Amino acid sequence: MEQKFDKYDYVRIAKDLGSSMSHFTADEDAIVIASYHDLYGGSDDNHHYCIYIKGHGETSWYYEHQLTLIEHGRKDLLKQWKAEAAARYKQHSDLDWIFAQGEEIFKDCPSGSIEALAACFGLTNLWGANGEGVTYLSNSIATLNLALPFLLKKDKEGWLAACEGIKQKMAERGR
User: Fold this and answer.
1) Do residues 66 and 107 share a domain?
2) Could you give the residue ranges of the DSSP H alpha helices within 121-155?
3) Does one domain contain both 106 and 67?
4) What is the Cα–Cα distance from 30 to 8, expressed in whole angstroms?
5) Quick one: pLDDT at residue 175?
6) Cα torsion at 92, 96, 97, 103 (round to 10°)?
7) What is the pLDDT of residue 46?
8) Other beta carbons less than 10 A from residue 153's beta carbon
9) What are the residue ranges in the chain where pLDDT is below 70?
10) How crowded is residue 64: how many other Cβ atoms within 10 Å of its Cβ?
11) Whether the bond into 61 is cis, omega within 30 of 0
């Protein structure tokens, strides 16, 4: 059985993905990145796809029946969405922007903001050595809790000073 979608096909994700995938993003536009078969070969009777979801990024594995073709060959749209995402990430990782938001940063918790705050005290990989989502979540929560008093006061300079203290303590422990 041939796969229904090719790389760069513009698709719509179904509203109802079923109970086993209720935690996946639904009812959004996406671009097909690759099928499971394209990436790994072998048999893939269910035709799973890795897709780039507008405003969310790349994710895997959606079933073929959960996607509806809008248009073939929209590499240009994928480039546009990635450029928009990069611009958002750049804005969200700017410390001046983060501290101007103050406690509002907690409503959306952009990954760029969390990563920028963590980098201030030397944590540059929130995912950990094994790339675990639970590690990312734990590190994100810890970073936001540490930053909260400074965000509430919109005190960027105080945050940076506190981070220098954290880095010094970490260096002393590492000796």
Assistant:
1) no
2) 133-152
3) no
4) 9
5) 57
6) 100
7) 67
8) 13
9) 1, 44-46, 175
10) 16
11) yes
